[in-house]
Amino acid sequence: MPAAELGTIAPARPAISPADPVSYARSLIPLLDASSEAHERARELCPEVLAALHGRDMFRLLLPKRIGGGDHSLFEFSQICEALAIGDPSTAWCINQGNVSALTASTYLAPDVAGQLFGDRYSALAWGARHGKTFAIKAPGGYRVSGRWDFASGSRHATMLGAHLPVAEADGTPAKDEHGRGYDVTVLFPKEAARVLGDWSSMGLRGTGSDTYELHDLFVPAGHACMRDRFELRQDLRPITAITSHLCYAIGFSSTALGTAQGMLNRYVTLAQGKQARAGSQPMAENDAVQREIAEHTATLRAMRAYLHTTIREAIAETEATASLAMDTRMALRLATTHVMRQVTEISVACYRGAGTTAVLEANPFERRFRDALCISQHLQATPWHLEMVGRHLLGVEQKPNFV
């Protein structure tokens, strides 16, 4: 991929160093682009890509240095996810899912346990979506867990799996917290303790290998369980841990959507520079409508990137100054991440349409990345319900906020 295609992300590529994961992520774009078709066929990341990621601790970007993590900021993390998505959206998706999951689990584990689980650079965590169809049954020293979870992105290269579920007493009745309410627990366990079904079959993001997995009466020690987003229970008090897991995921997924759209626009520009549409009287690059469209798409992407990055930096500054995040700032992050995901998806769609019949062929890059973009847009992080919630907040309407 020509270096010029990264012009909207960075004016130049600095020398790569272990301490500069953003430039390293950008250097991986050619490898990821070349591997994306193999990822789709295998429905998992290929060994060469995994080696490149593990070799620079790309699955431990947000963990504290005391357990071998990079302790990088969410602003750097946003740029990393965007760069990786330009090369291959499935890789960026797995990096976001794996890093945020590791961060938000280790934050609530005892430091020695976090070090044991995440101290190895080849460690990787995956887990599926929370559901309340089963319980973590209290048992002496821990919990007994049974159930099935789906959408475990990265499960095929993971060394650990996790599950989120409500807690029940030994007699099966729902457990209550100090306020008389039911509560959830997240449990972590070796992947080999579960039955992974290998059933990932999707329209896009096929390389994420987001399989379903099952547990049958597995005992999980209490030390390998935690209650995430209960800030008073944090064992890691770095400023980054004052941001909820929902918003950390949102930053990574919106950045992945942004990179996917940038990759589509890069390819559209390359196509337009060398194609003449059958129905056109001139090359695409000389067509006024194409010129205007590419300029408008570029402006929108730059605007969305600036909006997202500014909002992330404001949140980081607040956590560093106050060790917390006010609801206004949390809502601002929710609005920015959701809005960016929705807006840049339209860029991906427009680039697919602009490419004409070229875009429908599997031999060309548009068809697969179009499907990836639409899959990204279907995630909970992009739902319009979030916009309605933010609107209520701005209007002063009483509500119980979710996912902030």
Fold and architecture overview:
- Helix 2 (29-42) crosses helix 4, helix 5 (89-106) packs antiparallel against helix 7 (245-272) and helix 8 (288-322) packs antiparallel against helix 9 (327-354).
- The chain has helices spanning 21-27, 29-42, 47-55, 74-87, 89-106, 111-118, 245-272, 288-322, 327-354, 365-377, 384-395; strands spanning 125-127, 136-139, 142-152, 160-168, 184-190, 195-196, 211-221, 225-226.
- A hairpin with a 2-residue loop joins strand 2 and strand 3 (142-152).
- It has 11 helices and 8 strands.
- The protein folds into 3 domains: 3-118, Orthogonal Bundle (Butyryl-Coa Dehydrogenase, subunit A, domain 1), CATH 1.10.540; 125-229, Butyryl-CoA Dehydrogenase, subunit A, domain 2 (Beta Barrel); 239-395, Up-down Bundle (Butyryl-CoA Dehydrogenase, subunit A, domain 3).
- Strands 1, 2, 3, 4, 5, 6, 7 and 8 form an 8-stranded mixed β-sheet that branches.
- The protein has 404 residues and is of the alpha+beta class.
- It starts with 20 loop residues before the first helix and ends in a 9-residue tail after the last helix.
* Overall pLDDT confidence: 93
Beta-strand segment tally: 8
Number of domains: 3
Overall helicity: 40-55%
Q: Give the helix tally.
A: 11
Which oligomeric state applies? single chain
CATH superfamily of the largest domain: Butyryl-CoA Dehydrogenase, subunit A, domain 3
Strand content: 5-15%
CATH class of the largest domain: Mainly Alpha
| Poorly predicted residue ranges | 1-18
Q: What is the correct CATH architecture of the largest domain?
A: Up-down Bundle
SSE arrangement, N to C: HHHHHHEEEEEEEEHHHHH
CATH topology assignment of the largest domain: Butyryl-CoA Dehydrogenase, subunit A, domain 3
Using the alpha-carbon principal axes, give the shape. Answer: globular
Q: Outline the biggest β-sheet.
A: 8 strands, mixed
Secondary structure class reads: alpha+beta
Radius of gyration: 22 Å
- For the record, give the distance between the C-alpha atoms at the N and C termini, rounded to a whole number: 37 Å
